[in-house]
Each structure stands twice: as structure tokens, then as C-alpha cells.
């Protein structure tokens, strides 16, 4: 990477660093800004998919005052990311196969799917013929929103709160059924999956395997399992089809990997990047090439009467 990583305050949010540096990369690599050229597009794609890990790892280490660790070409994708995040200048991070496979699965299960908020943002910006760098940056910014990419962070915060209160989840379940309590069961339900999220079944199994391999005894996992069983058998949640989704377990798994809360959404951005790029290419290569302009329907007053200025409030004159 030609540009350096300095200039960000130590406590800058990782997503702020990620979005800023991806967008800025276009200034350092102007030769990759022509999406109509296949070779240029392929090079830009390879650059972003690779460098997004380096930027993300830097964001993590910057927040902890640690020096940047360079990648190793002999490592594969997820292994290299773990190395850049957790290795030290005097000792490399131990790449356990179970940990690498767990991160591979997290990237895979959080890959881009359907026309969600961030994907739609990428397509919208791409339709203006903006560069690939600017378009995927819009996806990062949209994913940063707490209603989009922050879902599994909310799950972990919920579990930590339950644990701090000395609850095993039973009291929280009852409170969640009371709309006036202000308690909400995070990580359950999905706008698309109206039955059990198939991704949740896969990541739950791998979560057990990871905890067993690392010999982790996490009280939050016990609380999560109680919440899951209660929600799967409680008529209140069953009738509303509030089944666990992928966010319910991914937060616990990333906690076991040593990934802190502010990095959760960064991990999703890495996983969704290939899909965002594919959407960008589809839009940029469209023969129609029309800029996106969502239809707006006016729902205000059908007709408003106009009162001449000299008759308003009986004062006359002009408003200035």
C-alpha cells in the first residue's frame, strides 16, 4: 500500500478509519478508477478485497496503540487477517485451525444477501458512475448504522447486561414480553427468514466446536442458550415467529476469538465486500446506465390555498 496509516486519532472508531481509507485509496491509485475497463476493474477488485483486511487490522491496532503488522504472503485470507490483528513484532499469533475456520465461517455467513440497506446504498452510488472505491465506501457507512450492522453487538450488550444483573435470562424473557418494560430480545426475528434462520443453525454448531477447542467457559453462552430455548418454546415468541438469527451467535463467537465490540461491524464489512463489488459491477455495466432515482409519492395536503401577501395577518407588506 502506497499511502501510510498515520493521521487518525488513537480512539477513532474502526468503521471511520475503514470508510475513510477505502475512499482515499482512489486518490493514491487513480489508474484503478475506470470501471468500464475490465482489467482496471479486476485490479481494483483484488486491491480492495485484499487491503480491506489490512485497513481493518490497522484500525484495531490503532485503537490499542499497537504497531502495524505487515501481512505474510504464505497465509490465506482469514489467517492473514488474524495475523495482522493479533501478532506482535516479537511473536507471531498462533493460528489455530479451529479459530481460522470460525472466522472463515463468520465471513461466509455474513456475506452480502438481498437488497438490504448497505447493498442498496452501493447500487445507488454506483448508478451515478462514481468509482468502485466511493461506492463500496457508501456500503461501509450504511452498515455502520446501529439498525443495520450493529445487530450482533446489541446481542452481546444484552447478554452482558443480563449477566451483570445476576439473571439467568428468565427475568429478561418475561420483561421482553411486556412492551412497557423497555426490554427487547435482540438477535431474534428477521425480515426475510420467518422461520429459524438457517445461518443460525450452522454458526451455533461451529460455536460449540470453537468453545470446546479453546476450552472456553463463557457464562454468556449459557445465558444465550437459555434465551434460545425459552424463545423456541414460549407461545409468545413462537406465535410471532421470533426465532434466533445469525447475529445471536456470531457475537459470542467473535468474543471467543478476541474480537472487541467496535470491530464487529468491521468484520461484516469484510464479509460483504465481494457482494458489494458484484452489485457495483452489475450496475456499472448496465446498458441502460440510468441513474437511480427512487420514486416519491407525495402524501401531503392535496390542495393548499394561496393567501396574497398583502392579506396575511392584516399587516400587508412584504415578509422581508
Describe the structure.
This protein folds into two domains: 14-149 and 261-284, Citrate Synthase, domain 1 (Orthogonal Bundle), CATH 1.10.580; 151-256, Cytochrome P450-Terp, domain 2 (Cytochrome p450-Terp, domain 2). By secondary structure, the protein is mainly α. 55% of the residues lie in helices and 0% in strands. The protein has helices at residues 14-28, 38-63, 77-86, 97-109, 117-126, 132-144, 151-164, 170-176, 198-214, 219-233, 235-239, 246-256, 264-284. It is globular and about 75 Å long. The mean pLDDT is 84. The termini are far apart.
Summarize the structure.
Helix content is 55%, strand content 0%. The protein is mostly helical. It folds into 2 domains: 14-149 and 261-284, Citrate Synthase, domain 1 (Orthogonal Bundle), CATH 1.10.580; 151-256, Cytochrome p450-Terp, domain 2, CATH 1.10.230.
Show the helix and strand layout.
Elements: H1 14-28, H2 38-63, H3 77-86, H4 97-109, H5 117-126, H6 132-144, H7 151-164, H8 170-176, H9 198-214, H10 219-233, H11 235-239, H12 246-256, H13 264-284
